[in-house]
Amino acid sequence: xxxxxxxxxxxxxxxxxxxxxxxxxxxxxxxxxxxxxxxxxxxxxxxxxxxxxxxxxxxxxxxxxxxxxxxxxxxxxxxxxxxxxxxxxxxxxxxxxxxxxxxxxxxxxxxxxxxxxxxxxxxxxxxxxxxxxxxxxxxxxxxxxxxxxxxxxxxxxxxxxxxxxxxxxxxxxxxxxxxxxxxxxxxxxxxxxxxxxxxxxxxxxxxxxxxxxxxxxxxxxxxxxxxxxxxxxxxxxxxxxxxxxxxxxxxxxxxxxxxxxxxxxxxxxxxxxxxxxxxxxxxxxxxxx
Length: 289
Known about the structure:
globular; mainly alpha
């Protein structure tokens, strides 16, 4: 696997890690549904100009459009809703770590559904990422850390995000859809899904909005819906999803480091070891994938 695909995937992981931190900050300043509903539309502010400047809109068949919309529903709506719940009811680093089972689900689904050739390196790397996430998970703490529903939500988010980031994306790209076209459908569909959910709250005027919350939503939309996805989709054009997914799992390490830097969370020996295992996964895939 070439260095270009690796760097693109690491860039997407870094963008999504920053998005997680911004989500945590944004949800503290706006209602959960309002924040979730406005982000896809803000993402389109970056996606649409980029699409017209690059002239890269190639949608392919109607079937591909339906698959892309379904991928958006699983990832940007269901998976994101579960992740929002997890970070709204517990620490960011814990939710990010638990949801980082996504590389395993991505590798498994790419092999089973897309019939990508299974490699020992990809499964070892995915296992190292999950093990690293387990080590970075602090089981000690407040009652918030022992609540079961946020834990289940984070694990569910990991399964949905892992499947949806690998299978629908790679299927559409191999069918002839361009990365920016997929991204346009991804964000547009997410805007529709969340718009349906937010509508009753808007009618009843129960959606709280702040200026700082809107600014954070704009930043998170840039890194989450635009930069992170365009890097990931471009990487998928250079390598199989089953090989790239373990590398994308390093986003949890970036999230933990940003939580330490910006949210004042402390670094433990377990966290450090978990981070080493996550980067070991990158090295294994890079050398043997």
